Amino acid sequence: MAYSSLTAGAWGVFHWIHWPGFPPSPTIDANVGRLYHEFHTLLPALEQSYEKPPFTVRHNHEGITRDFLTDSVADVTTLALEDENNYYVIVSDNSGVFKDVTLRLSGLKLDNQNSRPVEVLNESWGKNITYSPESGEWIIAPHTMCFGDINVWVIPKKTP
Fold first, then answer.
1. Which terminus, N or C, of the chain has the lesser number of Cβ atoms within 10 Å?
2. What are the angstrom distances between the C-alpha of 97 and each of 100, 101, 111?
3. Domains of the chain, earliest start first
4. Residue 2 above 50 pLDDT?
5. Is-above-0.85 flag for pTM?
């Protein structure tokens, strides 16, 4: 299972907080570079849609929370974003177990209702997104996540 660079890059930044200076590992250095690239890619979408999400996200772990220190946190948290060419769904797993997550998206304005591949930003894997006429939702096929995993799904507005 591959971690998104938001996860791996954050680990690299955490390393720098504890041990200032250049990282002793080229892997950490590369992951921090990937993190920078992802934030640079997402910045227009964050500016455009952070205050008013362009679509809604539901998932199969709604209502499940975990006690964390003195707070209760949701099993899975999401953030919906949009820029000129793509929609993005940032998904964070806050649980303590491996599990399958299914995402259901409402309000996407895609060029047609055909199934299409979607990918995790800067990763070499993805799934298909399929339109369900019964519910009016786009569904990203189940994918396994675990604690600390953060995936940034890229959904092209036009069929590739």
1. C
2. 10, 12, 37
3. 5-48 (no CATH), 52-156 (2.60.40)
4. no
5. no
